[in-house]
Amino acid sequence: MGNLSALPAEAIEAVRAVLRGEVVAAVGSPAAAVEITRSVPHGHVAAVHAQARALDLPGLLGPPGRLRDLAAALIVARVARPGSKLATTRWWADTTLADLGVTDAGTDEVYAALDWLADRQPDIETALAARHLAEQNNPGRAALYDLSSSWLTGRCCPLAAFGYSRDRKRGYPQIEYGLLTDPAGRPVAVQVFAGNTADPTAFTAAVATIRDRFGLTGLTLVGDRGMITSARVDALKDVGGFDWVTALRAPDIAELAADTGPLQMSLFDQTNLAEIAHPKFPGERLIACRNPALAAERARKRDALLAATETDLDAVAAAVTAGRLRGAANIGMRVGKVIGKRKMAKHFVVTITDTDFGYTRDTAGIAAETALDGVYVIRTSLPADRADAPAVVRLYKSLALVERDFRSLKTIDLDLRPIYHYTDKRVRGHVFLCMLASYLLWHLRHAWAELTFTDENPPADTDPVTPARRSATAARKAGRKSTDTGQPIHTLRGLLDHLATLTRNTLRFPTLPGSPPVDQLAIPTPTQRRAFQLLDHPIPLTLV
Predict the structure, then answer these.
(1) Which tens digits make up the pLDDT trace of 232-258?
(2) pTM for this predicted structure
(3) What is the chain's Cα-based Rg?
(4) What are the DSSP calls for 396-461, one per residue?
(5) Is the residue at 169 inside a domain?
(6) Domain of 102?
(7) CA 93, 444, 135 angle in degrees (round to 5)?
(8) Which of 452, 472, 494 is the last residue of a domain?
(9) Contact between residue 456 and residue 449 where contact means Cβ atoms under 8 Å apart
(10) Same domain, 77 and 179
């Protein structure tokens, strides 16, 4: 027990603080002499900005100026923290992206930068094509192309239309956009179309861009069977200067697999691929492939769908038998709804009268389809001396890289959708900005493969038809959630979030009146240090 009233007020307050469980710094200690007046996220912005500088992204955008600075900041922000333009302008003031001098930009100025970027799109894409599609950097002379869609809000955009939604977002108007990449999946160009544009029409526009704007010929264009149709193949032959790789549709495969056709299942007794020919495709190569894993999955899925459909058909039959459902028209409508729900109508033979309903499986049709499970046929104009059959299969399967780009654009990394802009120019500018962010993200993903779940050294595939395999190192990394050296691994988005915890702190010294504040970085974690080492860039204190 003691009377503390004789102590100085500061000492009494210190005792009270200790009793509250607080840590009290001694007078004159460094902790009492330094105050942190502000702390802002820095690491993620600094890393993305460093990668953008390494790619000379500002120079790629155009001549120096205020609009270029804003456009570059929008791209960096889209990678570091995707959001609407309005949310971005509020967010970048709370990060070190403010170093670029963009915090005073209003909404009108940001939209002006977006319009400026849209006007610069032809020149920027031409420069990217020279970087990644020209022969010196693309010895395989190949380019990948695919089409996707995203929905819009509102009803005023002239590009908005109802069409086939790849996002399964029914009831919303949409736009479509075609993405052109190099063989590694690196985005090079993007084109925006009305939401009801067919795949072949988009492909025709892409060919015109490659030939007329980029001035490139001799490329091998790779697209799926819905993109490069027979009509588009004929058009490419008329244009000249291009080869193609695509796949045949199911009816064409069934025709090849007829009793007298060249596609017989005995071809796959010793190997998973075989090169065949047919008079219907003169001067072209047909490479038939059979993927056993895909065959097993399709058989499993078909059996499950057939069983589920039969359960529903049994319920209809019970209703007819009980007299709750009568009339051939009414029964037919109910049956049509059931067998159309899972697209199983082709596998059932039904009999309907006013008072009776019955069904059986079309065993012959099911057997014919089962025989072709896992079989696909690649169609190409590439001569054998330029690419053997396994190389053509690998080239076609590289379309999966474009699909990954679409997933990154739309959901995982960049949140392209939904689109809130109304004018066609703003919509095109928004999609192009997201494509440039995807280009930047592609390089970050490869640079940071060591710290993410990406397989750094995938094993060479001895059989290009079978599914790709992960390396043993990647499997261990995924299982342990760490590298062989004990470094924790992240998703790419998770790694950016972790980098955001590297803050820049503004320090003030109360005991030194008149002294200026000092900026200092927090001590980086080993993962943060390694992330910048992989970018071959020191951790900067500022972005400028």
Answers:
(1) 888 888 888 899 999 999 899 999 988
(2) 0.87
(3) 31
(4) HHTHHHHHHHHHIIIIISS---SB---SHHHHHHHHHHHHHHHHHHHHHHHHTGGGBS--SSPPPP
(5) yes
(6) 40-247+383-452
(7) 125
(8) 452
(9) yes
(10) yes
